[in-house]
Design a protein that fits this description.
Elements (H helix, E strand, L loop, with lengths): L5 H7 L3 E6 L2 H9 L5 E3 L1 H9 L9 H11 L7 E4 L7 H14 L3 E5 L18 H14 L6 E6 L2 H4 L1 H14 L3 E4 L5 H8 L7 E3 L11 H6 L4 E4 L2 H18 L12 H7 L2 H11 L1
Parallel strand pairs: 1-2, 1-8, 2-3, 3-4, 4-5, 5-6, 7-8
Helix pairs in contact: 5-6, 6-8
């Protein structure tokens, strides 16, 4: 079955809501909820897979293995956080080729130095413009099909200010990036300026407790953003739910059946009927 591309989605639906999975189950639930696409963010995947912060501790091979586990649960396009490409132009080329061969529909490629940090964390830095441009060109050249969607992200706002971030994004647009992501604008005025400065689709995030104002998707669409990424919302609510559940268990509480999905309901969410049908067909 052919998977729709991000180009095709954006041609008919803006803003496009991009929820973030951190494992196979969350990806399956995102698709079951009816979303048109899915993403995997480094913060969420590293937290879920290793219980570690997003500070460059995980290798490309470890991240790739996580993506490989998640992808079979999806028939919608998947956008993957590719960090800085995991090295120089050789590594960027390999990252693009491996993800495209795996069946990923697109990546987000950033201009941070290594080891990278979460986009809203203190202490991050960015590579020189020329280095970032060379890596972006390598990524664009490495893809076999132009349908493989490459979002060029700049983290320069938090390091050198908004003017530098806008100039980098302009250069990335001219180089041929499919979409742009100016990370960490600090007020609505900055977001509005970003929204009217570019012709390519713009990605932004909704993440509580960050430097970027938390606006709803409709308002962000009005400001000019085409892709609304939720990199941490599913993970944050999962953490909160686990903490509450553990507190109840520790206190000796027993949940009433109506509070939770039953084992049969959970099994159905996981595709049990499909496996049962297969067993019946082939014995």
């Amino acid at each position: 079955m052919s998977i729709v591309t991000f180009h095709e989605l954006l041609a008919k639906k803006r803003p496009l809501i991009v929820p973030c999975a951190h494992d196979g189950l969350s990806a399956k639930l995102i698709q079951q909820a009816g979303f048109d696409c899915c993403s995997i963010g480094g913060f969420a995947l590293i937290a879920s897979r290793f219980g570690m912060p997003d500070i460059g501790l995980a290798s490309f091979g470890e991240i790739y293995a996580g993506v490989q586990d998640i992808l079979p649960n999806l028939t919608v396009p998947l956008l993957v956080d590719a960090d800085d490409g995991y090295g120089d132009v050789k590594n960027v080329t390999r990252t693009v080729r491996m993800y495209e061969s795996l069946g990923v529909s697109g990546i987000v490629l950033e201009d941070q130095t290594s080891p990278k940090r979460c986009g809203h964390a203190a202490g991050k830095s960015v590579v020189p413009r020329e280095t970032a441009m060379t890596k972006l060109r390598a990524a664009l050249d490495a893809r076999r099909s132009e349908s493989f969607f490459i979002v060029a992200r700049t983290d320069a706002r938090g390091v050198h200010g908004l003017d530098e971030a806008l100039e980098r994004a302009r250069l990335y647009q001219e180089a041929g990036a499919d979409a742009l992501f100016v990370e960490a604008p600090q007020n609505v005025e900055e977001m509005a300026l970003i929204g009217r400065s570019f012709s390519k689709p713009l990605l932004t995030i909704i993440a509580e407790g960050t430097k970027t104002p938390t606006l709803n998707a409709a308002k962000l669409g009005e400001l000019g953003f085409s892709m609304i990424w939720y990199p941490g919302m599913v993970l944050a609510r999962m953490i909160m739910s686990i903490q509450r559940s553990l507190a109840l268990i520790k206190a000796g509480h027993v949940d009433s059946p109506q509070d939770l999905p039953s084992v049969p309901q959970m099994s159905e969410m996981l595709g049990m009927s499909d496996w049962a049908e297969l067993q019946e067909r082939f014995g």
